[in-house]
Amino acid sequence: xxxxxxxxxxxxxxxxxxxxxxxxxxxxxxxxxxxxxxxxxxxxxxxxxxxxxxxxxxxxxxxxxxxxxxxxxxxxxxxxxxxxxxxxxxxxxxxxxxxxxxxxxxxxxxxxxxxxxxxxxxxxxxxxxxxxxxxxxxxxxxxxxxxxxxxxxxxxxxxxxxxxxxxxxxxxxxxxxxxxxxxxxxxxxxxxxxxxxxxxxxxxxxxxxxxxxxxxxxxxxxxxxxxxxxxxxxxxxxxxxxxxxxxxxxxxxxxxxxxxxxxxxxxxxxxxxxxxxxxxxxxxxxxxxxxxxxxxxxxxxxxxxxxxxxxxxxxxxxxxxxxxxxxxxxxxxxxxxxxxxxxxxxxxxxxxxxxxxxxxxxxxxxxxxxxxxxxxxxxxxxxxxxxxxxxxxxxxxxxxxxxxxxxxxxxxxxxxxxxx
Length: 420
Known about the structure:
Helices cover 42% and strands 14% of the residues.
């Protein structure tokens, strides 16, 4: 079974949960001995783990041959298609294509991030996808999140292969309902063209069915999972047990993640437990607002803003934390609580998160219920028996939530769309 996957980020260079989920799922799927995965991203950096898949960078894929002789073109693409056919295709597809991003090697340049001209990069990515779709061998197309849906559609139109899209989030989650019409149109188009839609939670599945008007029979939930801890992570010393109790928020500091509710709850906890400390690890457009909010509550001296963290840094913070909190307003899944529970950190999550569907040993509150959130924080740092129970049972639970199992579910979906 060969899958051509389109993604936007891949470890170690990630900016959010999309890259983490892409890595975990592909590793889990690669445990199937006959699974062959080609993973396309805009800009590889060269240090990605390719031991279980092949990575192609759209930034390294020539799309334009100008001032180059016919024999050179034939050498590069002749085994896949006739050079004149390529030129005809290029003229057809790229009629409105701007050459300002094409370098001397005939490749389109990509930032590898989420730039101000993101929609333009998405379009350019889909253009290169057409070239890749003609040069690779595969049985099924798998597009991860809205940024890659146009690429998946393009590949499907060229190859005739079935397309599965993976909804890691929708704009309803990112915007608290204030949906960007351009993003919605891309999402809806991807869903309409998909042969099957995978969602990371039942919460997201309902959004896809109700807001994007998709047939329920076409939408399947495959919950995310968590990677086993590496020896490097296991060797990080546990720094808990000091006098001050540390309560941590770790993620993008944006309105989707509910950071203001964390700060409000922190103020209530400090009124009863002045020895608590609070960490807000991450970056985002609400960071300065949260710094000002903490100052206005007169708790700035008990608050630490670390900025963006990744890789080993994340686990160093977790292993210094007594409680982890994810107060997301709308979270399609949320892998970070699973990572915290792996490290033995009792976790508080919102009912409005997809991971709440599969976690029994995390404390669940409504994101807006600051009183309940504060009560949970205070109880965990005050009552050792409660902390120990959540620590032990939570770790047992997440150790059985494996990407291998998620990969098996995705494989069954592949077989379904191929046979259909």
